[in-house]
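Subject: complex prediction, re-run

Hi both,

The earlier run crashed halfway through, so I resubmitted it with identical inputs.
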Amino acid sequence: MTILKVDKTLDTDVLVIGGGLAGCWAALRARQAGARTLLVDKGYISRAGCSPMSGGVMTAPTADDDLDVWAGEVVERGGYMNNQEHLEAFLPDMMAIVQEIDAMGPVIIRDREGKIRRLASRGMMNVRCLQFNPKETMTLMRRRVESVGCEVMDRVHILELLRDQDGAVSGALGLFVRSGEICRIHAGAVVIASGPLNIKGRNMADNVGADGHALAWRVGAELSDMEFAFGGTFSLMQRQYKFPAYNIALGHGAQLINAQGERFMERYDPERMERGELPQVIAAFLNENLCGRGPVYIDLRHADNHLVDDLRAVRGSIWADELTTGRIKDYRERPILIEPQWTVWSHRAGIRIGLDCSATADGLYAAGSVVKIEAVGTHASAGVPVGFACVSGARAGASAAAFAKGRGAPAGSMADQVEPVLARLAAASAATGGATPNSIYRTLRETLGTPLDCMVLSAERIAQIRARLDGLHEELGEAGAADPHEMVKLEEARNFVEAFGVTMASAAERTESRESFFRRDYPDTDNINWFCWHVARLDAAGPVLRRVPVPLETYKRKPLNLPARHLSTIGHNLQEALNGQRIA
Amino acid sequence: MASVLLDAGACNGCGRCAEICPVDVLRMDAATGRARVAYPDDCSGCHFCAQECPTKCITIDDRRETDGVSIYDRLGIADNWKS
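This time it finished cleanly. Structure:
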């Protein structure tokens, strides 16, 4: 393979990177605002990224909901760490977007009376979700984006963002995944909608990684709360097959039980039980196993009769078949062994955006799960990222179109930025005998280890991970790629190692525990020093971190009592194991 | 992570699987005009190809490899449910 030159040049007003819900809404709104719009994805748009594989749950209000009640509960559950300005702007947008999706086709699930069926959102009492068929929704989104005249290009991997002489983002360099051709794309504004941080080989949504985080980072945009992209990023799944339908199962009466048949969540979270935030449930799961009461099962023996129908409505036959074809032993006879599996949940962390979805780099916008969703604070439930993807995408697209219009078309070869990328690809093409993308990912997975290794951090553990990342950084310099497919994997690995380095640098700084982030050497939540967003930026000397206080004094909703310090929830749920010296 | 099994003899060459595979595992073979598994290591088991194949010539074996990172393996805990 020889990749040494730019094969073609494209020109657009708005370039959108990533063709999931966020990217499609961004492209749609940019085009509707009159911008020439190019939407690219390294997969096939409508079947790429997380959106078509999501659990089919969207936390979003409909016309029946009281937005003030919603905002109150989201802020309370978000630990008052929410950006309330963002929340109040996004909620009405979300209501409108649900209506727009509903008008596109029959993808939102309705009850027998024909009304949109609502389920209680996990961890919430008043806030509710709706269910939709993600794959069919994405088919409709693609069709709509094409119908308004957006240019859609599948199988293009973005290698690097390009900037003009003033430092504003002015396009990108892309690699055609199948032909190996290189394209330079001039753009008046760029929207990154590339999805959450993901380590390859662990999740079904495996063409997301950390590309968008790394692209933004390298042009100086800020990443926020990156340490939250790590410890709590697990969902509970059936061990052998992919049965990731925890949310749907809970909605039909599933319970978690330990080896003694005890519904153990009664001891950890009597109010919400299995419906609490997943990191807290995972911590309880780990404690049960560490203290000799494992394994843990999901008990569907008393689930209602609609479970299988519901699984089929949301995801076709995939999950329903797991239960009905005998691959999983009869779920009416015995509970199903379940365990935490790495998943993509980094809406707690990501590119920092303003109300117009601008990143902190001129010309750059971001939307969806690549973004730190400040609106929801520390709350996290499965349906939140989907709703946010739609509204942030729509806003980012409109804002990017306006920016591009005011700017005029950037020009120039930007050769000084193009050459190093071509040199990097040429070196990887020529390398033999060094690391491969697969070996890099294997090392990463071994470094991250079990859910326990991921959830329980300490200064020592963070230093160990950072040392391994340094080693990988060196290996990446020598690594080879045999063809364009492997080249994309190698670039993804580079991006992951870079973004994960920011995660670990942020983790090393945070001397407390909060929500999904837990350090055994600092098990308390510390509201005196850490009631803030933790923002990282790449400086000439390396990552620079700063704390941006949550401006509670300017917000409508304020906590009655914010304790200066308290044991974190993960610390509470793991207390028995920690006290009993059961964690090495 | 998962294996995609393709019965090439039953493939009608429509190309849909190669078009949509999120992780670029499947390609069309120029010589035979049929689909082939080009990058078997990368299948993530999403089932999209199998769901959309008009001749149903694709099956996914998605038995999860725990990759040495299962908490049950680490703690030596087995499925011991007694009903």
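Helices of chain B lie at 16-20, 48-52, 71-75.

- K.
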